[in-house]
Amino acid sequence: GDTPPNIEGEYNTYECIVYDACANAASHIGGYLSSIFKYYDQTNTGTIKASEKFSWGYSTGIGAFISGYGEYYTVWLECSNSDGSTTILIESGHKVPNSDILDMKSVTVYTDNPSSGFVQGDWWACSGPKRIINNSIINVNITTNNVSNITSSSVSLSGTLSYTGATTTIYRGFAIGTQINPTYPIMSPGQLSWTDNGSGQGTFTSTYSTGLQANTTYFVRAYASDHNGNVWYGNNVSFTTQSNTQPTTVTDVDGNIYNTVTIGSQTWMKENLKTTKYRDGSPITYIASNSSWQNNTSGAYCYYDNNNSNANIYGHLYNWYAVNNNKKICPNGWHVPTDADWNILINYLGGQNVAGGKMKEAGTVHWFTNTGGTNSSGFTALPSGYRLISGSYGGINGTTYFWSSTLSYANAVKTKKLYGSGIQVVSDDVAYNWGNPCRCVKD
Prior knowledge:
Blueprint: E1 18-20, E2 26-28, E3 39-40, E4 47-51, E5 58-65, E6 72-80, E7 86-95, E8 102-111, E9 118-120, E10 124-126, E11 131-132, E12 139-144, E13 155-164, E14 171-177, E15 191-194, E16 202-208, E17 217-225, E18 231-233, E19 237-240, E20 249-251, E21 257-263, E22 266-269, E23 285-286, H1 290-295, E24 300-302, H2 308-314, E25 317-318, H3 320-323, E26 334-335, H4 339-348, H5 355-359, E27 384-387, E28 393-396, E29 399-409, E30 412-419, E31 426-431, E32 441-442
Parallel strand pairs: 23-24
Antiparallel strand pairs: 1-10, 2-9, 3-4, 4-5, 5-6, 6-7, 7-8, 8-11, 12-13, 13-16, 14-15, 14-17, 17-18, 17-19, 20-21, 21-22, 24-25, 26-32, 27-28, 29-30, 30-31
């Protein structure tokens, strides 16, 4: 008709099939459109120049702009093709200021009796009377990271978003529910809700508690969305909330109370061990002397620099004879982690190259330098230092080694090292007579 329809608005990308027509070159796309249009010298006089298939020149179509320069526009164009067919194109988008470029947001193309063949152009083509959004290619990478700090009624969520080619704001958040593949913004069956975590690229987090029930399995997906109705989803991550009756502390034989944290499938102490006794109540020997420490071959502990105030913050330093004693150093129901236990934790937190940052206490109250220390896992590793075979101390406020119960070779044990200037977890082998802190993990 003579009056162009108003199609300005937003449409979903899944309403169309799209093909990329290469810029200024003939490209075979299976042949749906008999011509494709590339605009130049747009005016509001009712005439628009369009390039036609197999032609480097232009054909003149009948058309009109609906709105002004630098604003949203609607273009209607009717063009007679050289093969006798007629193409009607209706397009809506934004005219880029100070440019002859049309930033196309949606298009409807009608072609009667389209023939197979080649097309040329520099924007997206769609088959049949369909609509597409945005002629630029948007590449979105959205990842749902592992959850942490799971309680009976709350959980810490994390996602990572990156993208290229976006011409509008990309928003982000989480969808969560009791069934796999929760969605945004329309909620799927079993879905609790979704969160709005602003916009932009990088890692984003949220502490979620709305509607969570104890001892229930949930699924969460990070999502990204734009104004055009596009939604991209990350992977599903499942977690189970704690039971209401599950304790969040554990007490050792000395009466020391430790906070705990559930990370993935494991529950860990959030603090270093301070016990002076084995599980059966028998004492662990305290050794201050360097020479006695060096020559000792039985279970022993000490305070860093023989200063009890350090023990109150950083826990005790134990030799491996104490950690590996058959009398057991951890409370009932807990054990000294094996190297495999540590690796489960580290892998859950993204691997040894990044897990250290997520395990270290945030800030510089205790760490002199704390590169990338976020404590997003809740593990709260402190720079407790160590005691060498010689009995001398070192490393406080800068590094920590955690014992495992796994031998690496004769007279050496596997440990995990964290340090202030990095986010890695380093696997290291140390001698039995080293003094290191001990964390316990629940059986």
